[in-house]
Amino acid sequence: MTRRGFLAALAAAKWDDQRLGVFCGLGKDETTARRTLEAARAAGFRRAQIFFPWTEVDEAFLRALPGWLDDSGVRAEVLGAYVNCLSPGTVIMSCREEHFARAIDLAATLGCRHLAAWTGGYAPGLMESDARNFAPEASDAIGRFLGRYTRRLEDARLTLALETYITLACPDAPSLRRLLDRLPRCVGAVLDPPNLTPVARYAERDQVLREMVDLLKDRVAVVHLKDFTLAEDGRSYKLPGPLKGAMNYPLFIERILSLPGSPPLVAEHLALVEFAEARRALLPLFARIR
After folding, report:
1. Number of domains in the chain
2. How remote is the C-alpha of 123 from its chain's centroid?
3. Are 59 and 29 in contact (CB under 8 A)?
């Protein structure tokens, strides 16, 4: 297809403003959860990825959560259960293996069709690297872990969206695609350009974005919208919310709208007071591209 034909196809597609969702960190108590969901609704969002610290909430919190969502009018499209798939005993985002297993059951209660988890790493922090993360054996370990759960995911008709970062296993689109090619289709990717752009190619980030979408296109399960700039040390990134960094957002949105299957779109790295501003800034870009 020519570029003109591609853009004409995009123009013919119907864009639904409510497709754009937001990442809601619900905290560990009812007051924080309700406040966050109410902020999302007030900002105009009707869809969300929800996350809470699994290691700090109890069963009463989990049982009450569906009611809080119903009261807010916000639908949870994605449930964050950020287990470390590479090294499940190493907790990097408040989620252990038993919580991931519980999330598969909870998702059905919430009417949620997607889970999100880390590819993972051996270091105890998300931003900490370990040489073992990039060895071939890392993908083997992730495959073994997920092999314990793929039948349950398939039976529940859930898609697991694997998220990675430049410090974690499968830190770029080629390595993530190689992993996905070894896994059943109930496992897909979180498309998040800042997380998948090697620091050495930061100056080529537009080309990297094109390449990652081409590679991951049919396995993208969830899309995250934030931004990035190179940190002062030249070896890491600052990660502000969408349209607050150096990413080519018109290109990103054009590529998002080329994806098959209409995966959930989640604006993230936002404080509650930034929800409405981010939505107002992003929606005209989607409307312009479509």
Report:
1. 1
2. 21
3. no
